[in-house]
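Annex B. Sample input.
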Amino acid sequence: MSLLHTLQTHLPGIAIDVLRLTLWLVLLAVIFVPLERFFGERHAGRSRTELFSDLGFYFISSLLPAALLAAPLAIIAVAGQRWLPDAIPATLSALPLWGKLLLGLLIGEVGTYWGHRLSHELPWLWRYHAVHHSTEQLYFLANTRTHPVDMLVTRLFGLTPLYLLGLAGPGAAGSAAPVLLLLIGTVWGFFIHANLRWRFGPLEWLVATPAFHHWHHSKFEHINRNYASTLPVLDRLFGTYHLPRAWPAACGIETPMPKTLAGQLAAPFRRPGKPESPAVE
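Annex B, continued. Sample output.
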């Protein structure tokens, strides 16, 4: 603890964040690299350029959104306090803490589902989301290969309802909901992107799994499916569920995408209208 206190005292906040993320990265590698080595569905190497790009996205995706979302979410929280009928926050405040947390997680998951779905169906959003889908060999770090614009849009969809309803924000009862939503979504995201051939039987009806999400990344067949990050019931409810016993033949996108970090960050701006949004089935 004394070492941690010393570091916090003498290092700037950004350095502490980078150190924390580096330690988490080491832990993720210790867990997933052996699992993918022995239980992988596909075994294919990736270039050093692609690996460095994914490492760059790991830090960008972890550091940037919180800073950029703070102001708009604060404005949304104030708007909710002013415009919502008093009966809504009164009803929500009467719920027990566990009820607020569960409700917040469910509402956030529904918002994230629609943000994710629209990023496929609207061409101007797909330009950014295509960076994430450019991964042809899924593995745990593919989770954070996400363009900052894409991540901001998806998180706004997931968090805005919580701040509007008063389930998140300064002094909000149950305000741990957005933290839990992001924590569960991020941790589970590494798992469902991992190159693991495991199947989970009846549990696949309840929670997203690698097979469920690998079909979401399918390159040629049954695209625009399985948008939920944790709850497949949403895809069943909205007609986008697809989970056969087989695995997709290939993952990725048909439009070429640069391999470097800088190239992928710039791609949506350099090529207006491309890569094309996949046709909605």
